[in-house]
Design a protein that fits this description.
The chain has 433 residues and is α/β, with parallel strands linked by helices. The longest helix has 20 residues. The termini are far apart. Helix 1 crosses helix 4. It contains 16 helices and twelve strands. The radius of gyration is 23 Å and the shape is globular. The protein folds into two domains: 130 residues, NusB-like (N-utilizing Substance Protein B Homolog, Chain A), CATH 1.10.940; 207 residues, 3-Layer(aba) Sandwich (Rossmann fold), CATH 3.40.50.150. The strands form two sheets. Strands 5, 6, 7, 8, 9, 10, 11 and 12 form an eight-stranded mixed beta sheet that branches. Keywords: Methyltransferase, RNA-binding, S-adenosyl-L-methionine, Transferase. Pfam families: Methyltr_RsmB-F, NusB. Belongs to the class I-like SAM-binding methyltransferase superfamily. RsmB/NOP family. It comes from Devosia nitrariae. This is MFS transporter.
């Protein structure tokens, strides 16, 4: 709690530092909400600072390495988080004012018993950062991506694509929606542009998502254009029984219902199933929902189709979750690969002979994509690849590999509309019986 005598702007700075500190410790980024900061302007400022610090994390690493000869002091509480926010403001958000960046950073750590003894260091470091701000602003964008990830992705997607990755990281993700009815009238009412199929993009908006036209009426749902691809590829007749594994928050479930399938949605987390049910209720859609482990779920009768959006490294979502760039390790990815294989195996067990299995991940990593396809074909007797053809993804032909797999990334523009898309991998299989 801050008193009325405390400096203007300190409260959002403290909230931003607390959020960034938790992210640096390994938590996922989530915007600061109204329950934490009631004032809309203060909340927007706090989120802007955190977002800037996350998107510029690699460049700020370089800056801190230059300014702190001995590195960040150990056991120093909020010092690093406050320092990163202040550097982000000084170098990349100069319109917010240099004086407030320095002054509020010092005031913030004074209120932390683990960092208060470092006020002189904070002031000195930030004064040096301020004097070099012009040079730091010109640091290469190549610093934005971890070096090992940049090497992997350059090999997989090409250097020009990875250059676009860095730009996409700074730009963030536009708002993509899946429409029940992608009519010109609905698209115009949203101020959107058409992407592919029933996906549209709202590049700019002046109100919250739930205040956009058609939200209350359940006319659309938020879904990145890449995430909307897998469900469209099921290719079964209306009335088919389809299982959606790891289904929450329900965007793909909604697509499957829209396609006319009888859908069962599985997720292990009761809170996430509750969110899925709320989303379907708003849309006026019905699906059977099951709170159970997707890796052990044993249906009483087999399904015509199974869609598995498996837990993964989520490196393809870095435009909206910049922290994944720095949180993911080879060891962590290996653990997810093992989990994915268990889930693929159970998805296959749930599938009728002749049925269709869609496997997808929001990952840019080969281990979670093409390598999993090779493993599944070698391991699961009766499973064969059902190649995806360009006619099924009109407007995104560049996202189809020679093997008939879908591979999107932030350097691809769906339907030729600027703004990129998440990194997604999709494979379609059939149970040949």
């Amino acid at each position: 709690m801050t008193s009325s005598k405390e400096p203007a702007g300190l409260a959002p700075r403290l909230a931003a530092a607390e959020r960034l500190k938790s992210i640096l410790a390994g938590e996922a980024f989530a915007p600061i909400g109204a329950a934490e900061i009631a004032d809309g302007r203060d909340r927007a400022l706090a989120n802007r600072l955190v977002t800037a610090a996350l998107r510029r994390h690699g460049q700020i690493d370089f800056i801190l390495a230059e300014l702190l000869e001995r590195g960040v002091p150990r056991k120093s509480g909020s010092f690093e988080a406050v320092l990163r926010l202040a550097v982000a403001q000084l170098v990349y958000l100069p319109e917010l004012g240099a004086h407030s960046a320095v002054h509020l950073a010092v005031e913030a750590i004074k209120r932390d018993r683990k960092a208060g003894h470092l006020t002189a260091l904070m002031n000195a470091v930030l004064r040096r950062a301020q004097s070099h701000a012009t040079r730091y602003w010109s640091l290469p964008q190549s610093l934005l991506l971890p070096a090992d990830a940049a090497r992997r992705w350059s090999s997989a997607y090409g250097e020009s694509a990875v250059t676009r990755f860095a730009g996409a990281l700074l730009a963030g993700a536009p708002l993509d929606l899946t429409l029940k009815d992608p009519s010109p009238e609905r698209i115009a009412a949203l101020g959107a542009v058409h992407l592919i199929a029933d996906s549209v993009r709202v590049a700019e908006r002046d109100r919250p998502v739930d205040a956009l036209p058609g939200f209350a009426e359940g006319e659309w749902w938020v879904q990145d254009a890449a995430s909307a691809l897998p469900a469209r590829l099921m290719g079964l007749p209306a009335g088919a029984r389809v299982l959606d594994l790891c289904a929450a928050p329900g965007g793909k479930t909604a697509q499957l219902v829209k396609a006319g399938y009888q859908v069962a949605a599985v997720d292990a987390d009761p809170a996430r199933i509750g969110r899925l049910e709320t989303n379907l209720d708003r849309l006026g859609y019905k699906a059977e929902t099951l709170t159970t482990d997707a890796g052990t779920f044993a249906p009483s009768s087999l399904y015509d189709g199974v869609l598995l959006d498996a837990p993964c490294s989520a490196t393809g979502t870095f435009r909206r979750h910049p922290e994944v760039l720095w949180h993911r390790t080879a060891h962590g990815i290996a653990g997810r690969v093992s989990l994915q294989r268990a889930l693929i195996t159970n998805a296959f067990r749930c599938l009728k002979p002749g049925g269709t299995l869609i496997y997808c991940v929001c990952s840019l990593e080969r281990e979670e994509g093409k390598d999993q396809v090779a493993w599944a074909l070698d391991t699961l007797t009766g499973l064969e690849l059902a190649p995806i053809v360009t006619e099924e993804v009109v407007g995104l032909e560049g996202g189809i590999t020679p093997e008939g797999l879908v591979r999107t990334h932030p350097g691809l523009d769906p339907g030729g509309v600027a703004g990129g898309m998440d990194g997604f991998f999709v494979a379609r299989f059939r149970h040949r019986g």
